[in-house]
Fold this sequence. Notes:
Elements: E1 2-10, E2 13-25, E3 31-45, E4 48-63, E5 98-101, E6 110-113, E7 120-124, E8 129-131, E9 144-150, E10 159-164, E11 176-181, E12 187-190, E13 206-209, E14 218-222, E15 245-252, E16 255-258, H1 264-267, E17 273-279, E18 288-293, E19 301-304, E20 311-313, H2 315-318, E21 326-332, E22 341-346, H3 350-358, H4 370-379, E23 383-388, E24 394-396, E25 414-416, E26 425-427, H5 440-450, E27 482-484, E28 487-488, H6 490-496
Antiparallel strand pairs: 1-2, 2-3, 3-4, 5-6, 6-7, 7-8, 9-10, 10-11, 11-12, 13-14, 14-15, 15-16, 17-18, 18-19, 19-20, 21-22, 22-23, 23-24, 25-26, 27-28
Amino acid sequence: xxxxxxxxxxxxxxxxxxxxxxxxxxxxxxxxxxxxxxxxxxxxxxxxxxxxxxxxxxxxxxxxxxxxxxxxxxxxxxxxxxxxxxxxxxxxxxxxxxxxxxxxxxxxxxxxxxxxxxxxxxxxxxxxxxxxxxxxxxxxxxxxxxxxxxxxxxxxxxxxxxxxxxxxxxxxxxxxxxxxxxxxxxxxxxxxxxxxxxxxxxxxxxxxxxxxxxxxxxxxxxxxxxxxxxxxxxxxxxxxxxxxxxxxxxxxxxxxxxxxxxxxxxxxxxxxxxxxxxxxxxxxxxxxxxxxxxxxxxxxxxxxxxxxxxxxxxxxxxxxxxxxxxxxxxxxxxxxxxxxxxxxxxxxxxxxxxxxxxxxxxxxxxxxxxxxxxxxxxxxxxxxxxxxxxxxxxxxxxxxxxxxxxxxxxxxxxxxxxxxxxxxxxxxxxxxxxxxxxxxxxxxxxxxxxxxxxxxxxxxxxxxxxxxxxxxxxxxxxxxxxxxxxxxxxxxxxxxxxxxxxxx
Length: 504
C-alpha cells in the first residue's frame, strides 16, 4: 500500500511524501511487515508523470519469529450464527453492542451481541457458544447499540441493560430496556426504568458507575442523535428541545432518579456522545465520566468534586486538549507506574493529511479556505497516547511511543496483554468504506474544506416538495439527507451503496 500524505510543487515537478505499508510472507514462511516514509520526486513530460528519484526518510521492519498465535474459530464456536445486516442506521452511528461477561456465574465468559435485528445471548458451554436468547428470557429487541451486565439491584448477580437507537418518545419499547437477573440463568424484563422529564435525542453510549458515592451503580447515557461527524455537527446547534446527555441515580429497588436541569452534564447540551466510559483516572476512588465526542470538539471529562458535591468538566485542566472526530477512548497503565493512562482515537483520512500539509501553500485566491485548512492541520491526529503523570496532568507521549502513524480512520481500540508478558499492548481496528473510483476520504475532506453552508441532514421523502420541513431518521434507510433540496448528501449516498460488504 502506498499513500501520498503530502505533495509540494518544486521547480521541475512535485515532491511527494509517501507512506509505504507492505505485508507478506518471507521465503522461510514467516510473516513480515515493512513500513516506511518515503520522499519521491516526480516530473511531468509529454507521456505523463514519472518518478525520477527519492529517499527513505524512516523505515521499520517487523518479522515474526513464530507461527500465528490466533486461529479463526468463529464457526467452531458457533459464532457464525450471528447474522450480517445492511448498515442502515449504522451508516450514521457506529456499530452494535458487544458485551463479554460471565452472566451465569459458571466461571466461563459469555457473549451478548447486538444487531440491527434481535439481540442474541450466547452461553459458553466450554466447547462452543450456544444461543440461549429465548431460554434466558430475553425478548426480540433490536437496534441495540450498547449493553452492560452489572449488579444494579445489589443482589449479587449481574443484571443486563440495553440501549436502543430509536426515538425517545416514538418507539413502543423505548430506548432503554433492563433485564433483572433471576440467579438461575434467566432474566425478567423491566421497562420504563429511567424516568424522563425531558426529551432526549437518539441514544447510543452507555456508562455505569457510582456517581454520587452511595454504593449503588448509576447510569450515564449519551444521546448523539442521527447526525455524525460527516454532517458538520461541529458547527451546528442541536435541535431545540432535545437533550444530549443524561444521568440517572440509583435509589435502590430498581428506582432511578433523573438528574436535575442544573446538573453540569445535562447542561452541556452541545456534546455529541459517540462513546463513553467510567474510569477513575485521578485515583481518588471515584469514577470520572469520559465522553467521546465525534463533532471535532475536545472530549469532555466530568469529575465529581468531593468537597462540594458538584461536577466539573476537567479535560482541559488535565491536558487532554486535542480535538478531533473522536471514535474511542480507553484507559490502562501501559508503563506500569500504577497510574491509568489514556489512548484516544480519531477519524483521520489520508486525503486529510494531504490537504492539511498543502494548506500553507495556498495562494491568495483561496484565502477564504485558510482557516479550514488550519483547523484540519491543528486537529488531525488519529491516535493519541496521554501518559498520566500522577500529579493531575496528562502528557502527550504519542511521538515518543512511536505511534505517529496509526493507519487510516482509526476506530475504538483497546488495551490488552495479548502475549502475556505483563505489559499492556494496544489493539487498533481501522479502515473506512470506499466505492470503486470514488474515494470516501477525498469526498469527505473536500466537504470539510468547503464548510457546508446548509445542513447535510435536511430530510426529504419521495416526491415531497423540496422545501418540506419534514425531518426523517436514517433507521430504515428511507430518508434522503441532502445538502440542498435537490442534491442528495454524497457521503450518505456513497455509504448506502455498499450493502453488507466487510472491510478491515
